[in-house]
């Protein structure tokens, strides 16, 4: 791969501290990280798209940081519905006022990444209200040319799995986000987590992809109102920009 390629690895939903499914969340994250360290082309950054901890415990965030030790690339985190904004700020040195949505911009090689907070405190479903839309519009208008990725926890798409869509981003907020991103052709991709599956779709003419969890998967059932977890190998996504073209590779890491 040419030296001008920008490589971003997306990790999502490790749920450190979780006991509600078979499997060890710490081991799953460690397996994914070990695979990342074996990549022939080291990433320029890691993006962590939420649900890092499961019980809001400082010790759980410390375990995430310990698991990432040894990866040379910087890593950038945003909250999921199981996370605490202020705990995330303390452990990852993130900007913003206490209790406020975690939103910030980073430059990674040729890519600009806007880290967005889609959480609704106290709820599993997501929101992206007028204040967050305004922040994003300011960020996009400040640089309408650099290839840009948006990162958030709740994928702004319809999965057609009733149990997952019940815990999605609010429909009105999704529509407002679509109206905004369609005006900025430099937005190349929206990456998310939350649904514990690799799912692709589109919003406002932009690609959307959700990452698998490093802990457990959710079953594909197009009629189920209830979400059932299923054992799946830890996974992550590698996003590669080269010569102005972006590709996303979903990696599943078999155990053993």
Secondary structure: elements and pairs:
Layout: E1 6-11, H1 25-37, E2 45-49, H2 58-68, E3 75-78, H3 85-92, E4 104-108, E5 111-115, H4 130-142, E6 148-151, H5 162-165, H6 171-181, E7 187-192, E8 199-203, E9 206-210, E10 217-218, E11 229-230, E12 235-242, E13 245-252
Parallel strand pairs: 1-2, 2-3, 5-6, 6-7, 7-9
Antiparallel strand pairs: 1-12, 4-5, 8-9, 10-11, 12-13
Helix pairs in contact: 1-2, 2-3
* Mean pLDDT rating: 96
CATH homologous superfamily title = Metallo-dependent phosphatases
Spatial strand sequence of the major β-sheet: 4-5-6-7-9-8
Q: Order of SSEs, N→C?
A: EHEHEHEEHEHHEEEEEEE
Features of this protein?
single chain, 256 residues, alpha/beta, Purple Acid Phosphatase, chain A, domain 2, five-stranded mixed beta sheet
Quick take:
The protein is α/β, with parallel strands linked by helices. It has helices spanning 25-37, 58-68, 85-92, 130-142, 162-165, 171-181; strands spanning 6-11, 45-49, 75-78, 104-108, 111-115, 148-151, 187-192, 199-203, 206-210, 217-218, 229-230, 235-242, 245-252. The chain has one domain (6-252): Purple Acid Phosphatase, chain A, domain 2 (4-Layer Sandwich).
